[in-house]
């Protein structure tokens, strides 16, 4: 795998590669992504090929700042402006009416675009080096386990990249929260790194989830974010079981996880990658608390535990 440190020179080289139409592994605060220049339809289509991703699954466009939003979205509704000003840079994606110049390949042919400003210095410098916004879906095969460390970027995906910039472990560890602001009342399409409580506090009202049959953003399939090893959620683990537990492990294939949601989320994908490499028949995950703080973790675990259709 072509992993290189995220030095100034390597970021410039990665920006040059993106302008040539190549793909680059990019760190963000959420997960590592496959970056392509958002104005290059050929590069975007290559992203789908490298990931084995279906064309009806739109990408998130990453900006260097809110100032670039007018390049990709033709409208910023009042609620979206509040959220952008409050949470960008950060793990929040807004679905907005798109500008005509955004390739249909990036938006699954929809009239909306999913967009955010990442809170990672390497990602922001790479967007600037590339000269424009970047699409950057997670650096894993479609439905596979996301990478929060450069070493966990899928090798088959990495073969299609010019390089992977190593920006260290991701500080959030779960993908961004997606809020649909494209029509009517905002709705949460995917829970993630920005909590529902913080979003609702910023807007001064509660938000519903879902409410659309269109896939306006990533992460809306029933199965997603899954290791190769079958995963099951359980009330508790037996002494011989392998997986993630609260409290003391009973064997070498049990991993003790934090009791709080945010540090648990930071470690989740990395620990599942570790277990996925152990040739286990099954990974068990002790069920977290059923509280609002754990909404995004539960979303990822349920999707990972769903059988492939």
Structural account:
It contains nine helices and 15 strands. With 309 residues, the chain is α/β, with parallel strands linked by helices. The strands form two sheets. The protein has an eleven-stranded mixed beta sheet with strand order 1-8-2-3-7-4-6-5-9-10-11, with helices on both faces. β10, α7 (196-203) and β11 (208-209) form a beta-alpha-beta unit. α1 (8-19) crosses α5 (121-130). The protein is globular and about 55 Å long. It starts with a strand and ends with a helix.
Distance between the termini: 31 Å
Q: Rounded to an integer, what's the Rg over CA atoms?
A: 19 Å
Average pLDDT across residues? Answer: 95
In percent, how much strand structure appears in the residues? Answer: 15-25%
Q: How would you sum up the global shape?
A: globular
Q: Can you summarize the main beta sheet?
A: 11 strands, mixed
Instruction: Work out the count of structural domains.
Output: 2
Low-confidence stretches: none
Overall helicity: 25-40%
Which CATH first-tier class of the largest domain would you pick? Alpha Beta
Under CATH, the homologous superfamily of the largest domain reads: DHBP synthase
User: How many helices?
Assistant: 9
Q: Decide which structural class fits the backbone.
A: alpha/beta
Spatial order of the strands in the main sheet? 1-8-2-3-7-4-6-5-9-10-11
Q: Do you know the CATH architecture of the largest domain? A: Alpha-Beta Complex
């Amino acid at each position: 795998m072509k992993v290189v440190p995220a030095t100034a020179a390597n970021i410039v080289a990665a920006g040059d590669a993106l302008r040539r139409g190549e793909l680059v592994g990019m760190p963000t605060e959420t997960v590592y992504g496959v970056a392509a220049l958002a104005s290059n339809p050929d590069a975007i289509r290559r992203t789908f090929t490298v990931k084995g991703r279906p064309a009806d699954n739109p990408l998130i466009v990453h900006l260097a700042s809110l100032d670039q939003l007018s390049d990709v979205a033709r409208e910023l509704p009042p609620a979206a402006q509040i959220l952008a000003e409050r949470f960008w840079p950060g793990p929040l994606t807004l679905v907005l009416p798109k500008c005509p110049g955004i390739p249909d390949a990036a938006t699954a042919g929809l009239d909306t675009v999913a967009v955010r400003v990442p809170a990672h210095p390497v990602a922001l410098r790479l967007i600037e080096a590339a000269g424009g916004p970047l699409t950057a879906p997670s650096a894993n095969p479609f439905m596979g386990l996301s990478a929060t460390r450069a070493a966990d970027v899928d090798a088959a995906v990495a073969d299609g990249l010019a390089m992977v910039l190593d920006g260290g472990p991701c500080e959030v560890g779960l993908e961004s929260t997606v809020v649909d602001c494209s029509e009517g009342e905002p709705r949460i399409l995917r829970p993630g790194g920005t909590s529902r409580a913080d979003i609702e506090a910023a807007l001064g009202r509660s938000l519903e989830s879902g409410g659309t049959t269109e896939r306006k953003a990533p992460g809306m399939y029933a199965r997603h974010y899954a290791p190769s090893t079958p995963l099951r959620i359980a009330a508790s683990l037996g002494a011989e079981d392998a997986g993630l537990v609260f409290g003391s492990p009973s064997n070498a294939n049990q991993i003790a996880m934090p009791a709080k949601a945010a540090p648990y989320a930071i470690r989740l994908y990395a620990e599942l990658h570790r277990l996925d490499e152990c040739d286990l028949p099954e990974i068990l995950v002790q069920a977290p608390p059923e509280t609002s703080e754990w909404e995004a973790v539960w979303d990822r675990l349920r999707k990972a535990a769903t059988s492939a259709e």
